[in-house]
Amino acid sequence: MQTLEVEFVSGEVYRYLLVPRRVWRELRTAESAGAYFSAEIRGHYPDQWMPRGGTV
Length: 56
Fold this sequence. Notes:
This protein has one domain (2-50). The protein contains two helices and three strands; from the N terminus they run ββααβ. The protein has helices at residues 21-29, 33-40; strands spanning 2-7, 13-19, 47-50. It is globular.
């Protein structure tokens, strides 16, 4: 299990915790990363918002 850090087009950064490597690989190869993210990551793993500057 790893931490997946996602930067959205808005510039906001979130860390998703306990994400299996398989999910990262599938996200990278998905036809639509946004659709995969919404279906398989958002709401499925604990997350942390990373304020600009990198400190919580």
